[in-house]
Design goal:
The protein is α+β, with helices and mostly antiparallel strands and about 130 residues long. The chain contains three helices and eight strands, in the order ααββββαββββ.
């Protein structure tokens, strides 16, 4: 039982990007990641979704007069066809207009789907957007 639990944690760790994203992924993108059904003795070859086209978020014109520098992190669930099926925020900016702009950009981005053992599968990943006054 403990071995299976550790294996599940390792699978989530790999699917969500390894050590670089673990702290944020555990509290945000994990909720979007579908569970994998594995059989004893299974081996996994996991390839994360690949960004093909990154849409740029628009900086709201009414915020240009304020010195606003923020970061927004959006978790996306990329489906087996490479489309964004769902989004959730890992980090909000404190400005709803910036958050909405980042979410629109995430939805407009295009991906090659992630795969498990060569089969396209839905997979969650995090996109980070930085907003600086233009």
């Amino acid at each position: 039982m403990l071995t299976r639990m550790l294996f599940s944690v390792l699978v989530m760790f790999l699917l969500l990007g390894g050590a670089g994203n673990v702290a944020q992924a555990a509290t945000s993108c994990e909720a979007l990641q579908p569970a994998l059904v594995l059989h004893a003795g299974s081996t996994l070859k996991v390839a994360r979704p690949r960004l093909l086209h990154a849409a740029n978020p628009q900086y709201p014109s009414w915020l240009r007069s304020q010195p606003v520098h923020r970061r927004v992190s959006v978790c996306v669930l990329v489906d087996a066809a490479g489309r964004v099926a769902k989004t959730a925020f890992a980090l909000r900016s404190g400005y709803p207009a910036l958050d909405a702009s980042a979410q629109r950009a995430a939805l407009d981005s295009r991906f090659a789907p992630g795969t498990v053992n060569g089969e396209p599968t839905s997979m969650a990943m995090q996109l980070d957007y930085r907003f600086d006054v233009p």
